């Protein structure tokens, strides 16, 4: 029998966090899960931890590959998955014991393609809800799906259980060797996928890891990846008639930091590129070739 849920865990240089993640996944109350761990060329001893857990639990499969980035690792895991539903879990995060069971039951009951959990963002000194569902909602309208998932600004795929047949039908895969690969994936998931259900009282715990790809120092490459991802989202929203607040149309093209302070930021909106000191004082403005209106629809 095919598993009910395939849990895909991309792994790269997360030795201090990995055991906690694997314990939370292996301890799920739902029977019939498979756990696919993709070691993306980790330079630390993450692979040793994976192999130890796999030797003790036959639900765990370990795939090793040369580094292809987070998107490449997720794609490799998806290609190997056989479950009715797919769950992406990042290897420095963890989930509730009944996480899979609650999401799976809700999706089956609502005949939904997407089941969403709350997300708690955990920092060293405090924790904060990124999204907190307090009631069950079944959502079919596209605009309402984006609003329900707080997208934008949050393009998270990890707190969502996804029907594999839907992902195959849409041909969804992550861009590889780029940052902010969740943006395009999530926008198509919500824009073209089926019914969504929210599930209260079940939590994805997202650890803000300063050494992670997006949280570490913002290089020009990362900034360019982020700019292109959000630019593509604005174009996608306009093409599909998805209403956006004006603030989400102002796309940061480049920012310059010094001593932990952003002193210069270049933003693009409405066919204009504007440079501001401390994101407040305009320095210069120039026309760019393509246009996305700042005002909402």
Enumerate how many helices there are, as a single number: 8
Cα shape: globular
Distance between the termini: 48 Å
Q: Using only CA atoms, what is the Rg?
A: 20 Å
Main β sheet profile: 10 strands, mixed
What is the succession of H and E elements?
Answer: EHEHEHEEHEEEHEHHEHEEEE
**Spans of 5+ residues with little confidence (pLDDT < 50)?**
212-216, 291-297
Share of residues in strands = 25-35%
The helix/strand class is: alpha/beta
**Strands, count:** 14
Average residue-wise pLDDT: 88
Helix content: 25-40%
SSE inventory with pairings:
Layout: E1 5-11, H1 15-26, E2 33-39, H2 46-56, E3 60-64, H3 69-80, E4 85-88, E5 94-95, H4 99-110, E6 114-122, E7 127-131, E8 137-139, H5 142-148, E9 160-163, H6 164-170, H7 182-192, E10 196-207, H8 220-240, E11 251-258, E12 261-269, E13 272-277, E14 281-287
Helix pairs in contact: 1-2, 5-7, 7-8
Please explain how this structure is put together.
The protein has 297 residues and is α/β, with parallel strands linked by helices. It contains eight helices and 14 strands. It has helices spanning 15-26, 46-56, 69-80, 99-110, 142-148, 164-170, 182-192, 220-240; strands spanning 5-11, 33-39, 60-64, 85-88, 94-95, 114-122, 127-131, 137-139, 160-163, 196-207, 251-258, 261-269, 272-277, 281-287. The strands form two sheets. Strands 1, 2, 3, 4, 5, 6, 7, 8, 9 and 10 form a ten-stranded mixed sheet that branches. The radius of gyration is 20 Å and the shape is globular.
């Amino acid at each position: 029998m095919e598993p009910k849920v395939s849990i895909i865990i991309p792994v790269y240089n997360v030795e201090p966090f990995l055991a906690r993640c694997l314990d939370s996944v292996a301890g799920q109350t739902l029977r019939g899960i498979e756990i696919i761990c993709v070691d993306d060329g980790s330079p630390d001893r993450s692979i040793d931890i994976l192999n130890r857990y796999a030797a003790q639990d036959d639900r765990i499969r370990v795939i090793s590959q040369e580094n292809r980035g987070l998107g490449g690792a997720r794609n490799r895991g998806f290609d190997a998955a056989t479950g009715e539903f797919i769950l992406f879990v990042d290897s420095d995060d963890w989930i509730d014991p009944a996480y899979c069971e609650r999401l799976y039951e809700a999706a089956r009951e609502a005949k939904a393609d997407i089941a969403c959990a709350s997300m708690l963002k955990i920092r060293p000194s405090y924790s904060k809800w990124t999204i907190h569902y307090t009631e069950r909602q079944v959502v079919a309208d596209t605009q309402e799906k984006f609003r329900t998932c707080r997208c934008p600004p949050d393009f998270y795929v990890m707190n969502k259980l996804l029907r594999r047949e839907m992902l195959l039908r849409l041909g969804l895969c992550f861009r590889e060797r780029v940052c902010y690969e969740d943006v395009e994936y999530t926008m198509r998931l919500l824009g073209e996928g089926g019914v969504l259900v929210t599930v209260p009282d079940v939590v994805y715990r997202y650890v803000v890891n300063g050494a992670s790809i997006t949280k570490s120092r913002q290089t020009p490459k990362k900034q360019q990846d982020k700019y292109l991802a959000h630019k593509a989202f604005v174009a996608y929203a306009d093409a599909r008639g998805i209403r956006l607040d004006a603030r989400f149309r102002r796309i940061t093209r480049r920012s310059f930091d010094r001593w932990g302070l952003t002193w210069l930021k270049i933003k693009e909106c409405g066919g204009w590129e504007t440079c501001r000191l401390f994101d407040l004082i305009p320095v210069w403005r120039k026309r760019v070739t393509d246009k996305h209106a700042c005002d909402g629809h």
